[in-house]
Protein backbone atom coordinates (compact mmCIF):
# COMPACT_ATOMS: atom_id res chain seq x y z
CA UNK A 1 0.00 0.00 0.00
CA UNK A 2 1.21 3.48 -0.90
CA UNK A 3 -0.03 6.90 0.21
CA UNK A 4 -1.64 7.28 -3.23
CA UNK A 5 -3.85 4.25 -2.50
CA UNK A 6 -5.34 5.59 0.71
CA UNK A 7 -8.17 7.61 -0.84
CA UNK A 8 -9.68 4.57 -2.59
CA UNK A 9 -8.95 2.31 0.39
CA UNK A 10 -10.83 4.71 2.70
CA UNK A 11 -13.78 4.68 0.27
CA UNK A 12 -13.80 0.87 0.32
CA UNK A 13 -13.51 0.83 4.12
CA UNK A 14 -16.54 3.12 4.40
CA UNK A 15 -18.57 0.82 2.13
CA UNK A 16 -17.63 -2.28 4.09
CA UNK A 17 -17.65 -1.42 7.78
CA UNK A 18 -20.01 0.17 10.29
CA UNK A 19 -17.14 1.92 12.05
CA UNK A 20 -14.54 2.40 9.31
CA UNK A 21 -10.95 3.49 9.65
CA UNK A 22 -10.29 7.05 8.55
CA UNK A 23 -7.54 8.39 6.31
CA UNK A 24 -5.28 9.27 9.26
CA UNK A 25 -5.35 5.72 10.63
CA UNK A 26 -4.21 4.30 7.29
CA UNK A 27 -1.54 6.99 6.98
CA UNK A 28 -0.20 6.21 10.45
CA UNK A 29 -0.03 2.51 9.60
CA UNK A 30 2.13 3.31 6.59
CA UNK A 31 4.30 5.72 8.59
CA UNK A 32 4.89 2.96 11.16
CA UNK A 33 5.80 0.62 8.32
CA UNK A 34 3.17 -1.88 9.35
CA UNK A 35 2.50 -4.67 6.85
CA UNK A 36 -0.01 -3.22 4.39
CA UNK A 37 -1.01 -4.33 0.89
CA UNK A 38 -3.55 -3.53 -1.75
CA UNK A 39 -4.92 -5.84 -4.40
CA UNK A 40 -5.19 -4.03 -7.72
CA UNK A 41 -7.94 -4.42 -10.29
CA UNK A 42 -7.01 -6.19 -13.46
CA UNK A 43 -9.43 -4.14 -15.50
CA UNK A 44 -8.55 -3.11 -19.03
CA UNK A 45 -8.61 0.53 -17.94
CA UNK A 46 -5.35 2.47 -18.30
CA UNK A 47 -4.65 2.58 -14.57
CA UNK A 48 -5.11 -0.11 -11.98
CA UNK A 49 -6.83 0.79 -8.72
CA UNK A 50 -7.21 -0.96 -5.36
CA UNK A 51 -10.09 -3.44 -5.00
CA UNK A 52 -8.84 -4.94 -1.75
CA UNK A 53 -6.51 -4.14 1.12
CA UNK A 54 -4.99 -5.51 4.31
CA UNK A 55 -3.20 -3.89 7.26
CA UNK A 56 -1.52 -5.77 10.11
CA UNK A 57 0.92 -5.17 12.93
CA UNK A 58 3.58 -7.41 14.41
CA UNK A 59 6.14 -7.53 17.16
CA UNK A 60 7.46 -9.88 19.78
CA UNK A 61 6.67 -13.02 17.81
CA UNK A 62 2.96 -12.25 17.42
CA UNK A 63 0.93 -10.31 14.87
CA UNK A 64 -2.53 -8.82 14.57
CA UNK A 65 -4.61 -8.58 11.43
CA UNK A 66 -6.02 -5.07 11.89
CA UNK A 67 -8.25 -4.69 8.84
CA UNK A 68 -8.92 -6.48 5.59
CA UNK A 69 -11.50 -5.63 2.97
CA UNK A 70 -12.49 -6.34 -0.61
CA UNK A 71 -14.73 -4.27 -2.86
CA UNK A 72 -18.29 -5.68 -2.80
CA UNK A 73 -18.15 -6.28 -6.57
CA UNK A 74 -14.98 -8.40 -6.16
CA UNK A 75 -15.87 -10.42 -3.06
CA UNK A 76 -15.69 -14.22 -3.18
CA UNK A 77 -13.08 -14.05 -5.94
CA UNK A 78 -10.07 -15.07 -3.83
CA UNK A 79 -8.67 -11.58 -3.27
CA UNK A 80 -8.91 -11.72 0.53
CA UNK A 81 -7.27 -15.16 0.52
CA UNK A 82 -4.40 -13.82 -1.61
CA UNK A 83 -3.89 -10.85 0.70
CA UNK A 84 -3.92 -13.13 3.73
CA UNK A 85 -1.44 -15.51 2.06
CA UNK A 86 0.91 -12.59 1.41
CA UNK A 87 0.72 -11.59 5.07
CA UNK A 88 1.33 -15.16 6.26
CA UNK A 89 4.38 -15.50 4.02
CA UNK A 90 5.89 -12.29 5.40
CA UNK A 91 5.11 -13.17 9.02
CA UNK A 92 6.62 -16.64 8.71
CA UNK A 93 9.78 -15.20 7.19
CA UNK A 94 10.00 -12.95 10.27
CA UNK A 95 9.62 -15.91 12.66
CA UNK A 96 6.19 -14.71 13.85
CA UNK A 97 4.47 -17.58 15.65
CA UNK A 98 0.85 -16.45 16.06
CA UNK A 99 -1.59 -14.24 14.17
CA UNK A 100 -4.61 -12.80 15.99
CA UNK A 101 -7.69 -10.92 14.86
CA UNK A 102 -11.06 -9.79 16.13
CA UNK A 103 -14.30 -10.03 14.19
CA UNK A 104 -17.83 -8.89 14.98
CA UNK A 105 -19.98 -11.75 16.23
CA UNK A 106 -22.55 -10.78 13.56
CA UNK A 107 -20.07 -11.02 10.64
CA UNK A 108 -20.79 -14.60 9.62
CA UNK A 109 -19.07 -14.32 6.23
CA UNK A 110 -15.79 -13.20 7.82
CA UNK A 111 -16.03 -15.84 10.54
CA UNK A 112 -16.42 -18.52 7.86
CA UNK A 113 -13.50 -17.10 5.89
CA UNK A 114 -11.19 -17.10 8.90
CA UNK A 115 -12.14 -20.63 9.94
CA UNK A 116 -11.58 -21.85 6.37
CA UNK A 117 -8.11 -20.27 6.52
CA UNK A 118 -6.93 -22.04 9.65
CA UNK A 119 -8.03 -19.67 12.40
CA UNK A 120 -9.70 -20.90 15.55
CA UNK A 121 -11.75 -18.93 18.03
CA UNK A 122 -9.90 -18.49 21.30
CA UNK A 123 -12.03 -15.94 23.12
CA UNK A 124 -14.77 -13.35 23.18
CA UNK A 125 -14.27 -9.65 23.80
CA UNK A 126 -17.50 -8.40 25.32
CA UNK A 127 -18.84 -5.13 23.89
CA UNK A 128 -15.69 -4.74 21.80
CA UNK A 129 -17.23 -3.00 18.77
CA UNK A 130 -19.32 0.14 18.66
CA UNK A 131 -22.57 -0.30 16.78
CA UNK A 132 -23.82 2.99 15.32
CA UNK A 133 -27.44 3.98 15.79
CA UNK A 134 -29.93 3.07 13.08
CA UNK A 135 -33.49 4.30 12.54
CA UNK A 136 -34.69 1.18 14.40
CA UNK A 137 -32.01 0.87 17.10
CA UNK A 138 -30.05 3.07 19.47
CA UNK A 139 -26.25 3.11 19.41
CA UNK A 140 -24.85 0.08 21.17
CA UNK A 141 -22.00 -2.36 21.49
CA UNK A 142 -21.33 -5.75 19.92
CA UNK A 143 -19.09 -8.60 21.03
CA UNK A 144 -15.91 -9.36 19.14
CA UNK A 145 -14.70 -12.90 18.62
CA UNK A 146 -10.96 -13.36 19.10
CA UNK A 147 -9.35 -15.71 16.58
CA UNK A 148 -5.82 -17.07 16.41
CA UNK A 149 -3.79 -18.92 13.82
CA UNK A 150 -0.57 -20.69 14.70
CA UNK A 151 2.10 -20.08 12.08
CA UNK A 152 4.32 -22.99 11.23
CA UNK A 153 7.91 -22.21 10.44
CA UNK A 154 9.57 -23.65 7.42
TrEMBL record:
- Pfam families tied to this protein: Acetyltransf_1 (PF00583)
Q: Name one GO cellular component term.
A: cytoplasm
Q: Which organism is it from?
A: Motiliproteus coralliicola
Q: Where in the cell is it found?
A: Cytoplasm
Q: What catalytic activity does the UniProt entry give for this protein?
A: N-terminal L-alanyl-[ribosomal protein bS18] + acetyl-CoA = N-terminal N(alpha)-acetyl-L-alanyl-[ribosomal protein bS18] + CoA + H(+)
Question: Tell me, what does this protein do in biology?
Answer: Acetylates the N-terminal alanine of ribosomal protein bS18.
Keywords in alphabetical order, please: Acyltransferase, Cytoplasm, Transferase
> Top-level EC class, please?
transferase
SUPFAM superfamilies in the cross-refs: Acyl-CoA N-acyltransferases (Nat)
Keyword hit for Cytoplasm: yes
Instruction: Show the PROSITE patterns listed in the entry.
Output: GNAT
In this chain the N-acetyltransferase domain maps to 1-152
One example GO MF annotation: protein-N-terminal-alanine acetyltransferase activity
Entry EC number(s): 2.3.1.266
Q: What is this protein called?
A: [Ribosomal protein bS18]-alanine N-acetyltransferase
Q: Which family does it belong to?
A: Belongs to the acetyltransferase family. RimI subfamily.
